[in-house]
Amino acid sequence: MKLVLKETMSSLGREGDVVTVKDGYGRNYLLPQGKALLANAENLAIVEKNRLAIASRLEKELKIAEKIAKKISGLDIVIEQLAGEDERLFGSVTNADICDKLAELNITLDKKQIVLPDPIKTLGETKVPVKVGFQVATEITVTVKPLETKE
Prior knowledge:
Strand content: 25-35%
CATH topology of the largest domain: Ribosomal Protein L9, domain 2
Shape: elongated
Mean pLDDT: 88
CATH superfamily of the largest domain: Ribosomal protein L9, C-terminal domain
CATH architecture of the largest domain: Roll
Radius of gyration: 20 Å
Number of helices: 4
Number of strands: 8
Oligomer: single chain
Largest sheet: 3 strands, antiparallel
């Protein structure tokens, strides 16, 4: 099934791209969610007419993503968690925890942009990839330290 994307999707392409997807994915997800249109002559003409506006919007989004990537590239954040004697955490550090810590530094990201395959369950440093925009990614260092309890 050929579709025209109405928004940029990291797994498929950018807004305005014509993509080929499996029928079920297009019919059951992309079309009902309003993320794509059928690639017929009428919709292709509309996209072509709006090509300049789409290109300028994508360029602006790219500049913003690159600016954020430059700001957080190589950033080292420290998260304190309760830990046992064997350096294993009681619980774990998730992408939501990292996103909250970044928000404290006035960096607003969605937790889906933090690519953490598995939650961090041990103390120490971990390199965490961050997908800032379409094909714009960087890496931050997350240091997990034991929470000092006051006794």
